[in-house]
Amino acid sequence: MEIINRLESEVRGYVRSFPKVFTHAKANKMTTEDGAEYLDFFSGAGALNYGHNDEVMKKALLDYIESDGVTHGLDMATDAKQQFLATFEDVIMKPRNMEYKIQFPGPTGTNAVEAALKIARKVKKRDRVLFFTNAYHGMTLGALAVTGNASKRGGAGVNMPGATPIPYSGYFGEGRDTADDLDMMLSNSSSGLEKPAAIILETVQGEGGINVADFDWLKKIEALCRKHDMLLIVDDIQAGVGRTGPFFSFEPAGISPDIITVSKSLSGYGLPLAITMIKPEYDIWAPGEHNGTFRGNNHAFITAMAALNEYWRDDKLEKSVLRMSDRIQERLNGILSANPAFKAEVRGRGFFIGIDCEQAELADEIAAECFKNHLICETAGPDDNVIKVMPPLISPDADIEAGLDILETAIKTVLD
Ligand code: PMP
């Protein structure tokens, strides 16, 4: 089947990198119309952490549809929503001693970020929000204004009063620390940096090129927020829901964000679902202050509930991700040492791993060569210079090894 590019806007994205028509997908594999199978190292940009068409979620959804369960998109009190909230509290929040109010801000991650920025500014009655170089928080004007990659701003020149970029963890290299520098500027009124309402960050920058924040640095940023009376917003839209191992990516750092955004794999089945988690004392929304037609996708509640019950009542998934993560990084580093001409760096946590090829063309050619050999992986980073290795968390070990074999051959082919 011909891909109908003439009808789709020039802004179309993944169809350029993966120029095939896909018809089916199961677990960690996708199939094209002509029956060719592709290994998935992409996971729907992090929206399919449990793979494609999980049987338990599918059955729960089919049963719900069959029973004429409510399909309303507004945030009415439905049985599915009550059950999702109760399950989220029971499986995710209680075992972690977390207390948050859950807001349904709209269908996508960007909506969750937008709500987070608005409520933080409302709580602190200040405009300024600090964000980090190479951060990605979404495509609406507010979320875009705190997105640190100029190329993602879409030529729209987006600015928001007070949105202030700051170098990310490790940006200055050894010996200098942005958290210390920020502390200095905020403590000294002559620095000109007005007091912000909040800091927003990803613990691992996904679209920014798999830049991994140090746990100590995250702790320092949290302490900075406490010291200078700012809210800490952690955007866990891509790094969360097990992508780095634990359900929330910030768990090993032992920090307690004031606001957390979660979306992508929350529904578990690729359906749109987003939440903004707000510490109860900051939930000062007036009723109706953040509206939207699609703030309660009942089908997504059903699959999300099934995913939480299936994967997060024990630590099996987290453990297997952490175990295999070490193996992936070991193999990737082995590939780099075997090809000294290839100046690249492997970074990541869990199944959120990147190979920084330094040059965009190289990353692009390697990813294209992988796709030719039936492995789907995308590129990210300021110049799309990083190959993302993001298999579904449920991928069998043997398939991950097979995908890495394809990647290894692709690297050799491109370097030759
Ligand atoms: N925040 C982060 C960290 C993301 O990775 C993304 C999506 N790539 C978003 C926000 C925006 O989410 P969505 O595309 O669902 O609007």
Describe this structure in words.
β1 (22-26) and β2 (29-32) form a beta hairpin. It contains twelve helices and 17 strands. It is of the alpha/beta class and 416 residues long. The protein is globular and about 55 Å long. It has helices at residues 14-17, 43-46, 55-66, 79-93, 109-124, 141-145, 178-187, 215-227, 298-311, 316-338, 360-372, 397-415; strands at residues 22-26, 29-32, 37-40, 101-103, 129-132, 163-166, 198-201, 204-205, 211-212, 231-235, 259-262, 275-278, 345-349, 352-356, 375-376, 379-380, 386-389. The longest helix has 23 residues, at 316-338. The strands form four sheets. It has a seven-stranded mixed sheet with strand order 4-12-11-10-7-5-6. A four-stranded mixed sheet has the order 1-2-3-15. α3 runs antiparallel to α9, α4 (79-93) packs parallel to α9 (298-311) and α10 packs parallel to α12. The mean pLDDT is 94. The structure holds 4'-deoxy-4'-aminopyridoxal-5'-phosphate.
